[in-house]
Amino acid sequence: MEISASVKIVEKEKFDPQKAERYIINAMIYAKIANERLPPGLTESTLISNLRDNVAICRQLMTDNNKFISTYLRPYFKNPECMDNEEMVQLLEFVRKLHHPYYSRSHERKKLDSFLAIEIYTALVKKAEKIQDIEFLIKCWFGIGNIYFFLTGALYSPDSVIAVKKALALIDEAGGYLNLKDKNTRLCAAACYNKLAISAYNSRESGYPEKFQAIDDALAFYNRSDVRSLDPDFPWQVWIDDVNGNIYYMSILYEFMREIDPITQDLAERVYNFNRAYFNQEEIVQLESDNDDICKNFILESINSPESEKWAQCIQYIIPAYHSGNIDLDRYVKMLQYCLDAHTAFQKTSPDFLSEYLRFNLIMVISAILARYTKKPEIGTHLFNYLKKLPREILDALPTCKDELRTIVENTIDASNSRNYLELLLKSTTHNHLPTYAHSMMISRLMLSFVSWFIDNNPEKLVGMCKTKNVAEVRAEQEAILAETRLAGLAHDIGKIAYIQVVSVISRSLTDKEYALIRRHPEEGEYYLEGKDFGCIPDVVRGHQKSCDGKEGYPPGFDNTRSAYKFMIDICSVADSIDAATDNIGRSYQICKTGDAIMDEIIAMSPNRYNQDIADALQNEELRETINSVLQVVRPECYYEAYRVFISD
After folding, report:
1. In 10 A of CB 331, how many CB atoms?
2. How many CB atoms lie within 10 A of CB 153?
């Protein structure tokens, strides 16, 4: 059973397409509200009033959509065999509106409710298997694979590979593409080859032989004259160009898969020759010149002339040239530096979003490679300053560059740029979603209230913070401790970088898959901080969803009871619970509690769920007044500050 148990089960009714259309309208309204760009010039009171009105609307939309799921969908999830043929067709039409399955050149694809679409496809697969409808199964498995591919990039690419391979196996079972009777089925079938090539390219679980095999199979299929003559209106050349693009970009993987799956010499040479062919003989002479100035000037001119298309091709030549042994390491580093300098200095606005995104991606790749080979902190500093100036829609793509970012952190982070790095992470994650930004500021303020109280009343609990060894040092370093506390609160949810744009627009109760995705955020956050000295922040990020005794919560692989910063973890856990339970401005999925009610619950649930010392502190009237003041007075200020930051960006 996949849909959350909070959705009440009622007796099955026959699927109602009109009610399904209402669900889609509700989801679109909810997504529009969630993504709304608020106008400038609002006062704090107007902003808060607007947000509360929106929350009331969203709460009703969620209620209506949960009722639709309970009445018309959940019975199929529990027993797919209860659907008849007419309902199968209606559900397939509905799921396509949730996430359009067919290949589109446009990146304006419909992705209204991807996880619910997967649940519906899964039920349809079970029914189609029961009645042995192969063509229906092909459409369903392709739909599942397509959703996983677009869901969160590399995170779900292995699932996409599995689903598309099932579709391709069914094509063979049907006797091949030419034996498929339905044109829509053939469209899905043809797109499978392209999707497998791209998904295998993105998947770290697919080795180089599998990646190239998927490419070769796709190209062989798309060049078959019998296939193309059957459906001449299909986008064959678009698919071929996309598949070839996987060879073009294959070199980017070299540096980030070399330890787990180093590329063979023959495949490296294939990519090198493929990318070298993009340049004419005169350009090759300049690019491969022993004269550094000639090479440098060619790269600079190419990158500063995006209309020539060479601005993106230089790096695709340089990486395979090194890994195939055609240039040495010294030359490799020099040429990469030429590219990085030119890309980061480029001032013109690219003609479209994809060009801007590609430039961002190339800068991430080049910076990571240079970080690995030079280990210069200025590489990281330069990159972080560049990234902080990018618009939010570009920074949304940062999760797709997690390997590059991790390489940069491991090799370039030091005291000179660690703060810049944290600010970048915050901008691209919690600061990229207004309610989450306000929540992080609230956690920061609540944690500061607790830590300030303990500095004054029980400072021994904070020994170890900022490398302090005793109470006297805690008092002497209280400003540094408070500064680190503030950052820990702001950063506690940075792991949401992996999914915040996915689940923040969901107009219903979450599915089990969505809950599983959310439960990854402490580990995702750890990935971006591990291995460097960020004080208590990494452990707070890892452990704030664990119970005080370590027996409940997540992630299971982190033992918070052994952390040197356990008390700070426990403070964050309490602060997180207080804000989540009392937010009466930005949360649409629950009715809030009073501050006193949640503080009493925390006291009652200690020492297992919550820290006993913190629970005891919550019985202090002065601290309770401070906490209530943060909830009632500071929360609107946090939302308004988040709004002002969004407007300024």
Report:
1. 17
2. 15
Those residues with Cβ within 8 angstroms of residue 580's Cβ, 6 or more apart along the chain or in another chain: 439, 587
Q: Which of 405, 391, 317, 311 is nearest to 358 (CA)?
A: 311
Query: In CATH terms, is domain 79-226+236-244 a member of 1.10.540.10?
Result: no
Q: Give bridge partners of residue 99 from the DSSP assignment.
A: 111
Residue 204 has pLDDT above 70, yes or no: yes
φ and ψ at 13, to 5 degrees? Answer: -115, 160
Integer Cα distance of 449 and 274 in angstroms: 60
Q: Pull the structure tokens for residue 87.
A: 């309902």
460, 471 Cβ separation under 8 angstroms: yes
Q: What is the DSSP string of 16-71?
A: -HHHHHHHHHHHHHHHHHHT--PPTT--HHHHHHHHHHHHHHHHHHHHHHHHHIII
Q: What angle do CA 356, 358, 360 make, to 5 degrees?
A: 70
CATH number corresponding to 430-648: 1.10.3210.10
Structure token pair of residue 343:
């890309």
What's the CA gap between 11 and 16, in Å, rounded?
14
> 37-51 pLDDT, tens per residue?
889 999 999 999 999
Burial class (CB in 10 A: 0-12, 13-18, 19+), 619: exposed
Give domain limits for the chain.
Answer: 79-226+236-244, 251-421, 430-648
Angle ∠(41,46,47) on CA atoms, nearest 5: 75
- Helix (H, G, I), strand (E, B), or coil: what is residue 553? strand
Q: Both tokens of residue 488?
A: 């820990």
Q: How far apart are CA 555 and CA 607, in angstroms?
A: 20
Categorise residue 467: left if φ over 0, alpha if ψ from -120 to 50, beta otherwise: left
CB 395 within 8 A of CB 511: no
pLDDT digits (tens, 9 = 90+) for 558-609: 999 999 999 999 999 999 999 999 999 987 556 789 999 999 999 999 999 9
For residue 467, give the 3-state DSSP assignment.
coil
**DSSP type of residue 3:** B
**Is it true that 79-226+236-244 and 430-648 share their CATH fold?**
no
User: Helix, strand or coil for residue 465?
Assistant: strand
Two tokens, residue 294: 């000639």
pTM (2 d.p.) = 0.87
Question: What is the C-alpha separation between 133 and 501, in angstroms, rounded?
Answer: 36
CA separation for the pair 359, 343 (Å, rounded): 7
> Residue 88: what residue type?
M
Distances in Å between the Cα of 429 and the Cα atoms of 332, 527, 540 are 33, 14, 16
DSSP 336-401: HHHHHHHHHH--SPPSSHHHHHHHHHHHHHHHHHHHHHH--HHHHHHHHHHHHTS-HHHHTTGGGG
Helix (H, G, I), strand (E, B) or coil at 544: coil
